[in-house]
Amino acid sequence: MKALVKTAAEPGLELTDVPEPSVGPGDVLIKVKQTGICGTDLHIHGWDDWAASHVQAPLVVGHEFSGVVVEIGSSVTDVAVGDVVSGEGHLVCGRCRNCRAGRRHLCINTRGIGVQLDGAFAEYVALPSQNAWVHTTPIGFDVAAIFDPFGNAVHTALAFPMLGEDVLVTGAGPIGILAAMVSKHAGARNVVISDLSEQRLALASSLGVDLALDARTAKPQDAHDQLGMTEGFDVGLEMSGSPVALRDMISSMTHGGRIAVLGLPADEISIDFATVVLNMLTIKGIYGREMFETWYAMSVLLQSGLDISGVITDRFDHTDYEQAFAAARSGHGGKVIMNWES
């Protein structure tokens, strides 16, 4: 089968032939339909320090995908051939303290497809049946392909109650915009988003945020007068990994404000902990998705009318992967999708 492979410890990927994955007793084989490009994939493609320390070539990359089940293992009873699925790309051990307590998203032995294990930028991918999320209501393969990043957004946005709150989202990448949309759908009063890209701010505005701020010329506090806010933000969602964004967020929160942090910084960040203490702020780190509570929330959000298709702005055939990666790396669009249907 054809797959995008990190063939050597150097920049770039290669579309090449690899063996079709085998299916164990508890696994399913999925015919991949569409895939989404993630920031992790950009790191691996560019072969930066993070990739060099986490990835061992050769490796089939990619972890955001949708497809159709074409084969099931002998012990699989919860997934059937023909099911339309997305995939939870974090594979957990099932034996550590958190796994055995039902907190699988906190597994200390987590491995990721497309990072430690062969991934989904391929014609077929195999994974444990429990990691296949079956879509029981009709859903497009493009939207199903971005359930992984959608889950990151949902996990972050629903970390704290949203109803009636004023929310600040720093970082208008695809996940930041998705988090803003979830916040609004969950009942937030005002949702403000900030970024450096005019195109992404325009996209966020078109998808329903109340105010989009250019971080080069505006501060979060500027939203107060424009939206009639009398105090600071109740909830902050830091999605950018920017030290400046986090510090600005902390200074703009109301007393008792709550911050969920998904954005990964490149280096250590210094913050004003006196403000955190004196204003009694809560800062919570977020990684991946809760397995599988977040997945239930994602499906219910779509069933209740949330339309996330507008976050997808670029579509390419998998053979045009270099153009697709260039579009994702530009930092100005929304989600980039690659089609794997032959």
UniProtKB/TrEMBL annotation:
GO terms (molecular function) for this protein are: L-threonine 3-dehydrogenase activity; zinc ion binding
Give GO BP annotations, semicolon-separated. L-threonine catabolic process to glycine
Q: How is the cofactor bound?
A: Binds 2 Zn(2+) ions per subunit.
**InterPro entries in UniProt:** ADH-like_C, ADH-like_N, ADH_Zn_CS, ER, GroES-like_sf, L-Threonine_3-DHase, NAD(P)-bd_dom_sf, Zn_alcohol_dh
Which residues constitute the signal peptide according to the record? none
Task: Name all Enoyl reductase (ER) domain ranges.
Answer: 12-338
Report the function annotation for this chain.
Catalyzes the NAD(+)-dependent oxidation of L-threonine to 2-amino-3-ketobutyrate.
On assembly, the entry states:
Homotetramer.
Q: What is this protein called?
A: L-threonine 3-dehydrogenase
The taxonomic lineage of its organism, from the top, reads: Bacteria, Bacillati, Actinomycetota, Actinomycetes, Propionibacteriales
Gene name of the record: tdh
